[in-house]
Each structure stands twice: as structure tokens, then as C-alpha cells.
Amino acid sequence: MGRFDGRIAVVTGAARGIGFATAQRFAEEGARVAILDLDESSAAEAAAKLGEGHIGIGCNVSDGPSVDAAVERVVSELGGIHILINNAGVTRDNLLFKMTEEDWDLVMGVHLKGAFLMTKAAQKHFVTQKYGKIVNLSSVSALGNRGQANYSAAKMGIQGFTRTLGIELGPYGVNANAIAPGFIATEMTDATAARVGIPVDEFRAMTAERNPVKRVGFPEDIAAAAAFLCSDEASYITGQTLYVDGGAKLVS
């Protein structure tokens, strides 16, 4: 018996990285999973890795009609929706004076508008069935990070959004929480190392030294936190942001 037997989970931006690790964790614990990603072929390929009973759907989370169609397809093909993980994200880092309006709008659109649209579409089903679990991905960058005015603002916005969801949806049996990862070893952070001209292993080692546990995080660390927050064991937790950062926030 898995914690999520009979549950249907939707994970956005789940073709790789944190999203895929989270989808995999939910599948391992009994959920049927819908992987949503901008490219449907990538989503379908990722879903196939989970085995039978899971689906991949192409979805632009910053576009209302695309989101509505994706959620309705999940309900039609899998028979419902119980869990939503708003993980889809993108970065367009630059110092403020170099950041373009397009850089700002894209990051806000995917992270903040995307979470809003996905949650709005899913909550109709959650409220009707008096049950739902929402986890939104924030970041330690919400506390401010050089070169990430757009990303930091979006990720702090996620925390305010989550607190409001806790207030509004709690009476309807819906829990909403956020996870704020620290440094997680993914393709995205490896690309950052390449951009600044530091070997990946050296970049990770430097980052590990900045937190008390002296290691970097991995997608599985975030997946484990998401699985707990979406379990019935966490039914008395809502509107909260859990920092999963190896204690980096404690010493920053």
C-alpha cells in the first residue's frame, strides 16, 4: 500500500530535474501521474519512464486556455485530480540595469502566473470533492539574490500566493504549501557553472561549503518534502513555506 494509492497527481515542468524526481516519487508511492511540460513529446517520454498508467501532456502554464485544456485532459484520461505540484520554471538572470521587460515578463509569467492559472483550474475539482493538495515551488532566492530581481520577486510572490491559498481553500479540505529549495544539483545549476566558467564538480563543492550540512541538494530531496506535504500526515499544515536548503538560510 502506497501513501498515494488511488490519487492522481499533476506535476508541471516535470520532463526533467526536480519535476521529474517528484513525479517519480509520487508514482513510486502509488499515484497515477500526469507530467505537464511545454513540449508534449518530452512530457510523454518522461511519463513513459514511470511505467503504465501515467501520461504526459504538453502545456504552456502561462496561457489560460492551454492550462484549462491540460487539466480537463487529466480529469478525462486519469479520472480526476487530487494533487497539484506547481514546479514549472525558467530563469532569465541579469543585473537590474541589463534586465529587459521580456526577461521580467517571461519569468513572472511562468512562475507566478503559471501557478495562479494551474491552481485556479485545479481548485474547481478540489473544492467540489472537498479534497486537494497543492505544493508550489518557491526558492531561497525569494530572500533576494544578485542578478535575479525577476526570479526573486516571482518566488517571494509564490510564498504570498501560498499563504492566501491556505486561507481561502482550507475550509474546503484543500492544503496548500510551498517548498523553497536551496542549491539543487540539476541541469539548470550545471548550466550556471558553465556560464561562469567553473567546472561542475568545483561549483557544487563551493556551494556545499556554504551550508551547515556540507553537501548540495538533489531533486530527490525536494521530491521527499513534496510527498510529505501532499500526504494525509500533513493535513494540519497549510499556507507554509518549507525551506529545503541544507540550513543555508540559517547562515546567510
How does this model look, in words?
By secondary structure, the chain is α/β, with parallel strands linked by helices. It folds into two domains: 8-182 and 218-245, NAD(P)-binding Rossmann-like Domain (Rossmann fold); 184-216, no CATH class. The protein is built from nine helices and seven strands, in the order βαβαβαβαβαβαααβα. It has helices at 17-28, 40-50, 64-78, 101-129, 149-169, 187-196, 200-208, 219-229, 248-251, and strands at residues 8-12, 32-37, 55-58, 83-86, 132-137, 174-181, 241-244. A seven-stranded parallel sheet has the order 3-2-1-4-5-6-7, with helices on both faces. Helix 1 (17-28) packs across helix 8.
* Count of helix runs: 9
The name CATH uses for the topology of the largest domain is Rossmann fold
The major sheet is characterized as:
7 strands, parallel
CATH class bucket of the largest domain: Alpha Beta
Strand order of the largest sheet: 3-2-1-4-5-6-7
**What do the pLDDT scores average to?**
97
The number of domains: 2
Which range does the strand content fall in?
5-15%
Tell me the CATH superfamily of the largest domain: NAD(P)-binding Rossmann-like Domain
- Which structural category do the helix and sheet elements fall into? alpha/beta
Low-confidence stretches: none
- What is the radius of gyration? 17 Å
State the helical fraction.
Answer: 40-55%
Topology as H/E string? EHEHEHEHEHEHHHEH
